[in-house]
Amino acid sequence: MNREIVESFADMVKSKGIDRDILAGILEEIFGMLVKKKYGEEARYDVVVNMDRGDIEIFLEREIVEEVTDPNTQISIDEVNKRGNDEELEVGDDYVEKIELASLGRRLIVLAKQALNQKIREIEKDVIYNEYKELVGEIVVGDIYQIRKNDILVNHNKNELLLPRNEQIPFERYKKGETIRAIVKEVKKTNSGPVIIISRADNMFLRRLFEIEIPEIYDGIIEIRAIAREPGERAKVAVESQDSRIDAVGACVGMKGVRIHAIVRELNNENIDVINYSDDPEIFIQRALAPAKLKNIEINEDEKKAVVTADADQVSLIVGRNGVNIRLAMKLTGYEIEILREEKPFEEYEEDIELIDIKEELGDDVYEILINNRYDTALEVLTAGPEKLAEIKELDEKKVNEILEIIKSQYEEE
Questions:
Q1: Out of 62-76, 144-158, 165-179, least confident range
Q2: Which of 138, 248, 302, 373 sits between 20 and 30 A of 177, alpha carbons compared?
């Protein structure tokens, strides 16, 4: 029976990756508990586990007395003499005897197995927790085995990893059985075991992809100084070369964009802008807002604010689609950016636009009102200005401003 118990748990050591010495300690603890249950808390004992031989030995120590008052801790000299012994023992000496596991009773043996299983499960949880705690911030590769409403379960080395919705790349499609790469973001202990949270939306995932695809970053020749990202949409990465002979942006993009394209494909075609970092906030903000052309930047370093002045036709480039460009620039630089629009004098516009050409943007009603009031082109409307347009009874102040914004936007798009 001894050998069967040790061998069954030795197999578990191999499959679960539990240290043999730790298992031996658990066995000693469990069987010590059984001895106390049978012989009382005051019992003196020694449990010896030999993992190599697959053997458990339990030795009980009792004091030799003339008359026994506590059979759990004492044994009579007459009993000792009956059993025979190679050495002569006297009253007051300790008598050590080997206890067979079978003598503990079937109920206690079953209890031992249950306790051992419980201990093994606890150790297994700790092993998994410690393993993934060391992997936080690193990329793992697993297989999707279950897609749920709000999260995805990934199998990695027979362990379950959780990819929550907020850590997924928006609009990315996942299929059961396909291989997926993600970063280990967090490992939490719970009563049911460790929860390993992975992410594809975290900035660190993008950083690790750069290290994989760009050897100069992995080797420390090029340093990533800042990352700003809206997953699945766009990202900005500021890099700096530690070697003046190496162009940081060029190295990251690669020949014909091959390096950056590999990262873009992994991120579901997320657009990535790579820019050169600068300690000068004015230069850094200017680069972060590219491709827009700025006329002036006023920096308030104490309040971390920047006021950017640009021509009206550059504002849409600064802001970007749905404001993504300016949001990322603020995240990347750490500055709150305010835009001052400089209107272009009407006489500088190279060509006029017939209102009929922007009828759809203006709307049929507004177009008819302007035409009926003898406004045939965009420049005629802009030259008239808000005061003159407000004289038209069908237009209120809000509508006038809307009309002017629509017409100005036509020039900004050119």
A1: 62-76
A2: 138
Strand-pair category, 336-342 with 305-311? parallel
Distances (CA, A) of 392 to 34, 313, 360, 384: 99, 28, 21, 12
**CA proximity to 406, closest of 373, 369, 367, 362:** 362
pLDDT at position 203: 95
Q: In the prediction, which pLDDT does 166 show?
A: 93
The pTM score is: 0.67
Checking if the pLDDT of 13 tops 60, the result is: no
Out of 3.30.1050, 3.40.30, 1.20.272, 3.30.1480, the CATH code matching 2-131 is 3.30.1480
pLDDT tens per residue, range 234-247: 999 999 999 989 99
Distance CA 232, CA 326 (A): 17
